Amino acid sequence: MIATEAGLVGIIDQTNLEMGASAQEIADFCTRSVPFGFRALCLLPDQVGVAMPILRGTSISLAACVSFPLGLDRWEVKAREAAELCDLGVDEIDMVVHTGRAREGDLGWVEQEVAAVRRAVAHPRLLKVIIEIPVLPADLAGPVGLAAEAGGADLVKTSTGYKRLGIRATSAGDVRLLRSRLSPKTGIKAAGGIRSLGQLEEMVEVGATRVGASRGIEIVQEWRLRRGADPRGL
Amino acid sequence: MTSGATPVPLRYGSDQVEGWPDLVAPTRGELGAAFRALRRAGVAAVAVDPAEVALARQLLDGFPAPVVALISAPLGAMTSGSRVAQAELALADGADELAVAMDPSLVRSGKLGRAVAELSPLRRLAAGRTLRVICHLALLGPDLGAEAAAGGVDGGADLVMTNSHFDGEVTVEQVVAVRRRVGQRIPLVASGGVAATSQAAQLLLAGATRVAVGWSGFCGEPSP
């Protein structure tokens, strides 16, 4: 069980990847999210310019997705997009691996493309690599995660969580598997269908160090209610 | 993404049907199977994700359908430089045409002019080739989507596609709205969730030049 609100918000990537969201909708999302002090806000690349001035002066990192949600780009394009986003001031990159090559078990491909993006995302910026476990054969989730780690991922992320793909939600088993295979230095971001405090805590218990959620505010409010506090933080 | 459960026995071999990627995370083996089915069906064009252009070229193996590289699709949310890089590489890999997803966020934010301006470098890159614009009508609605289509044509597009594969289903209303706005001269591909012959026939009757049907509709293989 997560003991403090700081401990909770410090692992949440509050996420809005809604296709076609207007600048005003994203600005409202950012403005609503800032008082909660999330670890990061995670957005699509074309919304970075909207979020940047709202997050300036806060402790919240800005994360942007690369090759989202299919990952079906050449590595040069992924690296270019990551470099452009870093130039714009993004703190963290969430890249999607080539999901087709990952399903084939072409681990060299995955490692090479992650390494190419890593070169464009210099530390202290963080590189999270989405390996889309829900579409992978069960025996490949571990090896693909290891290939992402070998390429230079700071965190391996379970899934895009993109509902239009029609894939299953991330499971605690996905996280447990990655935790058992990856180095302790590599973080694990659980994402995809995590909509409640209970689900989030289950992910953390089995090894997630970061959680992506579009309902981060509701999850924090649920935590406050459980503690008997005003959900508005008053 | 479609389930792929309903093959679409259209007038294959005519010039009215295109293939459209709807498989989630296809392997090279699955792409090979899909392309064999597309060739058997005699499709008029094949749209592919940009990483697979070179492979698509090989798999067509002389079959005369153009390879259409999807750019900034399905979301239309890429950074400007990476979109151009994606197009350059797709052309170098052998793409015959580019299909560019306009940025729907810009359009919904009242910045259609900026969304259109983003087409300019791609128009230059694709000089002498067909530049398509994907207009997200299911997401934007028929009126705003048709505005986007008209903007795309003003920005140099040669052909309008109604939707990316994540927007939702194309409707007769969308086709009529685009035709009303851009006239009869511009080719119009009805794309987005076409899964039945009767639906395709209605879209063609309403003014679509072609319909785009998901690969799974040709090979009958469900998405993984």
Molecular structure report:
The complex is a heterodimer of chains A (234) and B (224). With 234 residues, chain A is an alpha/beta fold. Chain A has one domain: Aldolase class I (TIM Barrel, Alpha-Beta Barrel), CATH 3.20.20. Chain A has 10 helices and 8 strands. The relative contact order of chain A is 0.14. The mean pLDDT of chain A is 97. Chain B has a single domain (17-219), classed as Aldolase class I (TIM Barrel), CATH 3.20.20.70. Helix content of chain B is 42%, strand content 17%. An 8-stranded parallel beta sheet of chain B has the order 1-8-7-6-5-4-3-2. In chain B, strand 3, helix 3 (80-92) and strand 4 form a beta-alpha-beta unit. In chain B, helix 1 (28-41) crosses helix 2 (53-60) and helix 8 runs parallel beside helix 9 (172-182). The longest helix of chain B has 14 residues, at 28-41. Chain B starts with 16 loop residues before the first strand and ends in a 5-residue tail after the last helix. Chains A and B meet through helix 2, helix 4 and helix 5 of A and helix 1, helix 3 and helix 4 of B.
Task: Provide keyphrases for this structure.
heterodimer; A: 234 residues; alpha/beta; TIM Barrel; eight-stranded parallel barrel; B: 224 residues; 11 helices; 17% strand
CATH architecture of chain A: Alpha-Beta Barrel
CATH class of chain B: Alpha Beta
How large, in whole angstroms, is the Cα Rg of chain A?
Answer: 17 Å
Largest sheet, strands/sense/barrel of chain A: 8 strands, parallel, barrel
- Please state how the strands of the largest beta sheet of chain B are arranged side by side: 1-8-7-6-5-4-3-2
Shape of chain B: globular
Q: Strand order across the biggest sheet of chain A?
A: 1-2-3-4-5-6-7-8
Q: What fraction, in percent, of the residue positions of chain B are helical?
A: 40-55%
Strand content of chain B: 15-25%
- For the secondary structure, the number of strands of chain B is 8
Largest interface chains and counts: A-B, 38 and 40 residues
* Overall tally of structural domains of chain B: 1
Order of helices and strands of chain B: EHEHEHEHHHEHHEHEHEH
Give the low-confidence spans of chain B: 1-7
The N- to C-terminal Cα distance of chain B equals 11 Å
Q: In CATH terms, what is the fold-level topology of chain B? A: TIM Barrel
